[in-house]
Amino acid sequence: PLPAPSRNRGSAPDPAPQAPEGLTNAPVVAVAGGAAFTFSYAENTELLAAAGADVVSFDPLRDEALPLGTRGVVIGGGFPEVYAPELSANEALRKAVAELALSGAPVAAECAGLLYLGRSLDGLPMCGVLDAEARMTKRLTLGYRDAVALTDNVLAPAGARMRGHEFHRTVIEPGAGDEPAWGMHRPERRVEGFVRGNVHASYLHTHWAASPGTAARFVERCRG
Q: Going by C-beta distance under 8 Å and a sequence separation of 6 or more, which residues neighbour residue 79?
């Protein structure tokens, strides 16, 4: 089984390990936390730091700006549908995320992060980075997935295979962009997620330790 995700119970993630000494180009990678984004693998953050990133937490519910000098953003899972009104009301932060994404900075978003990057969630405005709308449903989508990267992106080269899982009660329409993030091979064949420039967003939760080059690839893209 996959390692248990960290759950911060409403606070930002614990500080990540410091980047190795001697690195003169440690890009700031902002990792979403707070009550709306409580589902993440601690190892992913540790791997970012080990790859040379200066990992800094931010709370999309409370912070009105991204951390100073942010060069990349990681937005994991959680329950944004519970906090949709508050996330939507923080217009300054939504605009900051959108501007960074549209500038070409790397952004990796999973599940809750995917919803946050969309145009709207249950009719409430979100970041608008992706031309997609999300809504809550009663149906639970749950299970492991075998996936392959369909295009070269900030997390993986085209053709790379990864295993992850889905756990959500939402749908996003459309379910995939013109450049889908993944081709799924289990339990059924389908395409899913979005790649837009240096933005990678999908429902798939992935543990980057299973593919050690993932964090290093993301950090290298942040360095430009």
A: 36, 38, 112
